[in-house]
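Office hours follow-up: a student asked to see two folded examples consecutively, so here they are.
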Amino acid sequence: MDKAAEFLKKYYGYDNFRDGQREIIDNILSGRDVLAIMPTGGGKSLCYQIPAMIMDGTALVVSPLISLMKDQVDTLQQIGIPAAFINSSLTLPELRRIVYEAENGRYKLLYVAPERLESESFAELIKNIKVSMIAVDEAHCVSQWGHDFRPSYLRIRNLRSISKDNPILTAFTATATPEVKGDIINLIGLNNHYEITTGFDRENLKFEVARTNEKLKYVLEYVRKHKGKPGIIYCLTRKLTEEVCSRLVGAGFNAVKYHAGLGDGERSKNQDDFLFDNAEIMVATNAFGMGIDKLDIRYVIHYNMPKNIESYYQEAGRAGRDGEASECILLFSPQDIVMNNFLIDNGTADDMVKANEYDKLRDMINYCNTDKCLRKYLISYFDPEYDREECNNCSSCLSEIESRDITVEAQKILSCIYRMGGRFGGGLVIDVLKGSSVQRIKSLNFHKLSTYGIMKDYDKDVLREIISYMTAAGYINVAGDKYPVLTISPSGMMVLKGQQHVEIKKALPEKQKSVKTKGNNSEYDRDLFEELRILRKEIADRMSVPPFMVFSDASLRDMCTKYPQTRSDFLKISGVGEIKAEKYGTRFMDAIYNYAEKNNIVLKTADEDEDKEEIQTENVKILSFENESSEKTQKEDTRTISYKMYLEGKSIQEIAEERELKSITVEAHLESCARLGYDIDFRDFVSEEKEEIIIKTYKGIGGDKLKPIKEALPPHITYTEIKFALCKLQTGEEE
């Protein structure tokens, strides 16, 4: 675990593991199978990536989407970890190269699509490489009772027997009911496994259900209010996706669309535009998003109610993966129920699966109708032991509630259900209550019931809302699948007998409550943040990677709070490891320095000890990660690169400009090389004029501290020049 903690800081830039990560990594390193259920953004990937770097061999990662694999591999390569993927996007030469390099132990992580497991050639590859671990991402895809079922996941359990190394199996997911969890264990083939659920709660996410029949108007107003913030709008059908995207573009918003009806090229371009911050809004069906690694999505709006809680929670969870405050809004209207029933009814699943889908849809409808805490409803669905009553970060908890006693209305509805024998659906119950003259009512003699027409003055939508509320509150049960019927629950019978009152609650405008979130959006320099975002985008575009792969918004905000100006300070920024500090640190510190100078912000002045620390840190060799069992190879030392450029006759300033480093950093590289015995002429660093001034000042002050000498010298003379000049004196050259 010491090595794991070292890699956590070096490659990922974090000082401490998140909840559950240490236990998961420890069990993997001890050779035990693992099942980890962690919320989206909880750091699942790191739990198998760090052990993969430590263990002997290559870890196979089964991942469901091409876009997810590419993002993961690009991110790993950015921080210096050798990884690759095998999927249908590769050309034949690329595939052959990756297979060859995998067989020669080049990679620590190899990502594969589940369909690849059906290939005989892939089975041969497994036999020819040392497999350290098999990690199954989005493991819920193995269960047909969950969502996103992928039949190819059922072949995962065969991988262990194919490999001669008998690797451990690890499975990771963010959404799994107890039923789905059991499927993961059995169908993947976990043995004597360690199991951990770190919780389903995402405190930085605000949940809201908005009942509206003017959804497009709501969306246009919302995105106008949140212009400049990335967001996803999910629609139930391709047609709606096209319509909503078209209206947004027509209103001047930078929106793109994504659904299965688009060509591969257009889908890929639109996804990249969103990931690379070239488009602000993604309008999509549920075909978009699984595993999308964009951290700074500030809102997810569901234009329609999804058909189950699992899908909703995973899709909503794509917001705020960086821990910053974000919103998840579900726009609900009764028509959503009709649409989802139609989609289930016309699906290809068998009757047993459809029955399960109808049950899940009812849970989703109840979520939309509850007046209780939305977070509690969602998390209790996955974790029945969750007992927090109020989250203060959902539309129910943040709204003033106006209660209205509807006991009389409830008794009339329950009485009608009772007299109809509990054998009919809500539509017919409403028709009887309204006194409808449709033929079916007469054929069943329901026009003779005492409840016939008893609520004829009520609008149908009002009756439908009351019935939905009573169902969500547990007074009415719904039975049946395609044609559900209403029955009275035990608590409903108490209402009918006058032993219990019913109150319907209506939300008023939201109260202002303080919400604790991981991110703090108020205590950072917002103008500097925008400048750093522009710089990040420039660097990302030049490297052809999404901006979040350079630095997350959370890292930029930390920079805008701490104003780092030395490498050691830069390494203290959240999410900054050694590789990223080496690649990007100078550019960002220079931008911060220039901003501070322009805005008269006084930055902390580095003293001698800080300069020493920076130089010592720069002298640390950056090694590429290699398999410890094989012969280690060293990436070209960053100091050596500066030394080679020095031998080419380039000045320190020229080297600094070409390598996008500070001059003091280049000087530190060359000073280190000199100490290691490289052939360096000190006169190349200190002019005779500066040398004379430095030595004269030193002889006048004496002692062995550099700081008093530096303070007595003109500001354009650097610590490194002082050291080189004194080195001549101390080695006797000057004498």
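And the second, which I mentioned at the end of office hours:
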Amino acid sequence: MMEMKDFINRELSWLTFNHAVLQEAADKTVPLVERIRFLGIFSNNLDEFFKVRVASVKRLCELKIDTSKLTIEEPKVLLTQIQKRVIELQELFDETFHSLLEELEKENIFIINEKQLSEKQLKYVNNYFVDNIISELSPIMLNYVNSFPRLKDKSIYLATKLMNKSRKAGYEYSLMELPRKTLPRFIQLPNEDKNSYIILLDDVIRSQMGLIFSKFPYTLFDSYTIKITRDAELDIDNDLTKSFLEKISKGVKERKKGQPVRFVYDKKMPADLLDFLKKQLSIDTEDNLIPGGRYHNFKDFMEFPNIGPDKLEYKKLKPLTHPDFMPGKNILDTIDKKDLLLYFPYHNFSHFVNILREAAIDPTVSSIKISLYRVARVSKVINTLINASLNGKDVTVVIELQARFDEESNIYWSQKLEEAGAKVVFGIPGLKVHAKLLLIGRKINKDEKIHYTACISTGNFHEGTAKVYSDVTLFTSEKKITRDVRKLFDFIEAPYKPIEFKSLLVSPVYMRNDLGTLIDKEVENAKEGKKASIILKLNNLVDRKMIAKLYHASQAGVKITLIVRGICSLIPGVAGLSENISAICIVGRFLEHSRIFIFENGGNELYFISSADWMTRNLDHRIETVAPIYDKGLQKELRHIIDLHLADNVKTRLISAKQDNKYRKDNKKKINAQDEHYRLLSINKL
């Protein structure tokens, strides 16, 4: 019987992962500008964490039910633990940022504020403000409004106290949103003495307070940045007269009014202004008040400009051309002859787009079915599907309207597809469609049945994420797989028909039991004295039942190796529980996103790729796939990739109960798995 102490809380484990991202910002082997951008990634991650996970914990606090099965700690206790850890990370963040400012200065790059401007720079800023900024500002004088304005999520504001020199005379408060949708956050100033200078939009506005408030009798203006994060959960009503599309659209609009889950403020803000804001926003000390530095919305630093030498950024990696996807080749005919794997972001994502483009105009192609979870705002994938529909192909697109934070984009493209004549399916109520599937049907000869080609991926068919997420994509005409993919699309369109799968492991119907059976087989082999091992590469390992099975397998002597990039609730290396389990995390230039499973199976290894993490939501509440890799050559490729990750001694952290992200160190040759993966693919040696 597992006890609570045998698991790490998922929220606290996630914060450990984000700490690893922050470590990249502190890593001197990472190019300097990239380190600044990692601060932006850390901040963006934290924003989403509060919008989703912390918001969920706060909701649990408000429920008067037994929550012991939902979280490890009591929700209120967990909130306190989260706040403590976030403040610790915020302090480390501030230290890292100031250290990076010093390193920038060594490269003759200076981020300066409004008080550090030279006369020449001040003149430039004055002109820039008048020409570009002042017309974008809408300050609100809080002493004159009937109600406090609703602060927007994702926005930052300058809260200003207007005073005179005596500071004891009358004063007023003002609130002003930074116009980030129309203006850059970073403004490059003219070089001086071979030095480069950047000033933030916040500080340009601070420098012009006298002009902004020239109609008021004040001479001193103290401005402090504030930011609010709101609950991002969609509340979908049960109005039967509305379509699912209408409900999601309404939910997205209502999200903007979600309850506050975090209030970040400049810790130098005077107590009277802070108290005023807290009162107006109805925020108390339990609502995750986070004292911060001078600047917020550090996610903007993901786009920090490089105004120095090329060495301050990662060397650009040219996307590679797979030898079987050379221009002029008929890709579908090539896949008929053998299974293929593409590895993004190392391979060029245009290979996937080109398959769709080929299918769109191929006279033998009769149908295209695809599932899309996240869609790029400018999508070549969608454009090729529209083209296919206009060319008379039977195009069916499953779009997941509940892909968090991408709902608006997905709604937009679903409408464009329908306008082009494509059939758009919004999945199954209560089940997100997270599987990444493509099925192309061709009638090669008039008298033959439809011939199918399938694509199954661990990642989204998304041009943007394909540049930064590491994923594996299988292309196959293997009938055992294409038959199951066809069945799965049928199930999505008509979910109430009973269905069986012969090759794919599919959630929510079979995957949990099928994975359990694979683990049980390793246990059986271990008990019989045979070699038994499991290797799992995942983003998240959270589901307690699956963790309990892994603990049981470890106790039976099965050697288990875990590569878990994000949340890991399993505790490895505990005597009597998990001494046969080792676990690592790799955080580097690219986001590790592929899921790869290897079961020793008595010497006849079984290889799988998957869209699913081992989380309850993936196994029980989503449509996901685990696809077998039958081709021996491709199995060797996957094994080589896993061996690279297990040999990495540059970006690997050890997962432990301490959650301290200690780097794995050895005296062997330095191996960065991601760099080595690219190198081997570039010389066709994988």
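Two things to take away from it. The mean pLDDT is 90. Residues 57 and 79 are 7 Å apart (CA to CA).
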